[in-house]
Design brief:
By secondary structure, the chain is mostly helical. It contains twelve helices and eight strands.
């Protein structure tokens, strides 16, 4: 605020724009660079450094008087972003950042042929290490593609703290989409892929048939799911699983299958075994 920046613009950038883009992560009032920042090219880092060097120092801006905190002061508190990442120093570092940038920003899995650098054991290991430091992991999709996602521990922590989770209606509609586009076709033997990709779209009328979910409610939930990448629209009409589901690890995919089994037949033998196993694991 001391730089005469518009307060609403700054708040929107810190609370919404930058976290959504993965450029920063916030934990209360403490911020840190996010995974997308690791993929910024060296030219961008150079520009950011030049801008940073031109900013007034804290001694020039003056300091707030040391007094008991009150609402007015707290509302003006600046969220300081801890900068630990450095600009790429070598071609090796640039290759790692380029690879991570491609994986993190891709709408879906990237073919291995399009990421030949990952065939290099050293680059592969460095990419995995860098992703792990950002709370991400490298996921193999079949034997031909790569994508990134959240490891089990991070995904569990996010769900536990209700970070990025879906609303109850969105979860219900997503379950119906997966049931009609993947589970039922798989049971009929016409869907053999073990991922949540599908070529069997479901129509809105099918989703709300004999259900307590109203059309307007289902439509609103589908819009939210589309924005989050959990649902996509088919060219011929209807809805399909979205690209975000392709970022699930094999363990997470299995858990989602188990959830559908419990949903489809909650009193069945398999559902009881799943609940017993989860109780034991907990």
């Amino acid at each position: 605020m001391a730089l005469n920046a518009d307060r609403n613009t700054v708040v929107t950038a810190l609370d919404t724009t930058l976290p959504t883009a993965g450029l920063i992560t916030l934990n209360g009032d403490l911020g840190a660079l996010g995974p997308a920042a690791a993929a910024l090219p060296s030219a961008i880092w150079s520009q950011l450094r030049r801008i940073h060097e031109r900013l007034p120092r804290s001694t020039e801006l003056g300091r707030l008087p040391e007094a008991a905190p009150d609402t007015a002061l707290e509302s003006l508190t600046v969220r300081w972003i801890a900068i630990e990442s450095q600009a790429p120093a070598t071609e090796f570092d640039e290759n790692i950042r380029t690879t991570i940038c491609a994986l993190e920003t891709a709408e879906g899995p990237i073919r291995r042929a399009d990421l030949p650098m990952l065939a290099d054991p050293a680059i592969h290991a460095a990419v995995e290490t860098t992703l792990a430091r950002c709370g991400r992991t490298l996921i193999s999709v079949g034997s031909h593609s790569w994508i990134t996602g959240y490891p089990a521990a991070v995904a569990a922590a996010l769900a536990r703290n209700q970070v990025g989770t879906l609303q109850p209606t969105e979860r219900a509609v997503l379950a119906l989409v997966l049931l009609h586009t993947v589970a039922i076709p798989r049971a009929r033997g016409i869907h053999l892929d073990d991922t949540w990709a599908s070529t069997h779209p479901v129509q809105l009328d099918t989703l709300i048939a004999n259900r307590t979910i109203k059309r307007t409610t289902a439509s609103a939930a589908l819009r939210g799911l589309r924005r989050a990448g959990f649902v996509a629209t088919a060219k011929a009409g209807g809805y399909l699983p979205g690209p975000a589901l392709l970022r699930l690890t094999p363990t997470q995919r299995n858990l989602l299958w188990e959830d559908l089994i419990v949903l489809g037949r909650p009193t069945g033998y398999m559902a009881r075994r799943i609940r017993e196993q989860r109780t034991t694991d907990a």
